[in-house]
Amino acid sequence: MKPCFGYIRVSTQKQGLGVSLEAQKEAITVFASQHNLTVAKWFEEKETAAKSGRPIFSQMLRQLKKGKAQGLIMHKIDRSARNLRDWALVSELPNLGIDIFFATESLDFRSRGGRLAANLQAVIAEDYIHNLREETIKGLKGRLKQGLYPFRAPIGYLDNGRGQPKTPCPKKAPLIREAFSLYATGQYSLRSLTAELERIGLRNNAEKPLSLHGVESVLANPFYTGLISIKKTGALYQGVHEPIISTSMFQRVQDVKAGKAGKKVTRHNHLFRGLFRCGLCDGPMSPERQKGHVYYRCQNPTCPTTTVREDRLNDAILAAFHRVRMSEEDASRLEAEWRKWTAQGDKGQHVRSIELRIAETEARLIRLTDLLVDGVITAEEHQTRRRTLSLELSALKEELEHTEKLQLSEAEMQKFLELMKNLAELHISANEHEKRWMVENCFSNRTVIGKEPFLEPNSWLQCREISELSPLVTQNDTLLELFKTGKIPAKPEEANTGVPEPLIEKPTNRNYPTKSMPDDEDGWFWTEAA
After folding, report:
1. In terms of CB atoms within 10 Å, which end of the chain has fewer, N or C?
2. What's the CATH number where 34 sits?
């Protein structure tokens, strides 16, 4: 009996769990017994034949060429190859004296007619794969143009069956939102963020902690903003699924990743690390612990600024919040102006401005397609520019939605004004992360001269005109979220209890001293403008 190899194959691991392999093996065994052949060794593979390079198939061919068997038995032609490159390797075997048999097809591979029939079937098998691939791609593109993501849902979304949009997972979507929010602060590296996400319970689709690469992929995926990006082609589609984060938040994260945000990663959990700079040399005030206290020190050895204790910084921040707190009189006046302003519809001009920018961006997208058709730009340049413009358009639409629908209601405006009257109390009741957020978002210029901290309030803290104040709040995602959902701390019974002494402010002429100021020197005073 002639010794032969038996080769059986299915396209996927899942198919390997079925009966196909056993059926192929049985058919080959019956064929061998009927034709005085014996199967000396079986080769079983669970991989598609549409592409060349199958490892077990290649191993079998090498052993055949070494004379380990005199023949090869396969179930049918499409089990051996669905691409002409592999079929050419099989076709060479008879030239080496190795017989080819197919258990379910009566083809004599040694005759001219039999080989011709086999070659035709191999071509048909390859054409079947090409046609199947084209139809699959056509179907996928159709779904993408409908705004549907035809693949497995990314982490944070749920699959709802074919033809249905992905929906946010009630458990994981808030954690994805938290991941973007944390990284956008600039206080986390990818490694420290990965550890934090594991701590708060974010898991991948296999319910395992995210790897460093997994976190990086999440932060780079615009799917969470409502867009569908196809990595292989660079194509971008508008999805119909509900976004988890805003486009502005996504852009902020990309800026932090690219180093454009001017943030430094916090490696230690010091409260004000990275928030203050030296007012004399502009160097960073770096924290260090000595004798149970945290000190912030200018690292320039020639600078007269030395150190300031963390509790002194905290006192200065509280004093600054007390200075910019809104009076009852201003709050009442702003509330009245707000009612009048909304009744008159003064926000319409801003809406029209955004709509004009949206129209301009859409026109640029159309012109971009014309440039591609005319051959002015390459397909790669088109995809890159289209991605940028699509993100810009999405951000503008979000801004329009904020302006039209997310204006502060009367109750929310009252909550905002109440917060403005209680900023110091809000800071006292906040946790460490919230304290840092308040300092970063409330004060733009934070410096230390000698041993004295100086803080310059942001415009929205100082503004007392409703026409200027409302856009500052409603166009700022983080502020809007705070004023819509933040808990107002209880106001102390005695307003003057625990208020730090007034903060010494830097002089307006900026003639700073050239030596360190003694602790008891109170020569400069800040006075609030009338």
Report:
1. C
2. 3.40.50.1390
What's at 486, amino acid-wise? G
Residues 25 and 114 in one domain: yes
Same domain (yes/no): 373, 448:
no
Q: Are residues 196 and 250 in the same domain?
A: yes
Range of the domain at 171: 157-258
In-domain check, residue 138? no
List all residues 6 or more positions away from 113 whose beta carbon is below 8 Å from its beta carbon: none
Contacts of 125 (CB under 8 A, 6+ apart): 77, 78, 81, 82
Is position 147 within any domain? no
How would DSSP label each residue in 60-93? HHHHHHTTS-SEEEES-HHHH-SSHHHHHHHHTG
Q: 10 Å Cβ neighbour count for 394?
A: 23
Angle between helices 212-219 and 173-184 (to 10 degrees): 90
Residues in the chain: 530
Task: Give the model confidence (pLDDT) of 94-153 as tens digits.
Answer: 888 899 898 888 777 777 887 788 788 778 877 777 777 777 777 788 888 888 998 899
Q: What is the pTM for the complete model shown?
A: 0.47
DSSP state of 18: S
Q: For residues 435 and 437, what is the distance between their CA atoms, to the nearest angstrom?
A: 5
Residue 492, amino acid: P
Residue 338 located in a structural domain: no
**How far is it, in rounded angstroms, from Cα 49 to Cα 60?**
15
Q: What are the angstrom distances between the C-alpha of 412 and each of 201, 215, 409, 468?
A: 32, 35, 5, 17
pLDDT in tens, 182-214: 998 888 889 989 999 999 999 998 889 999 999
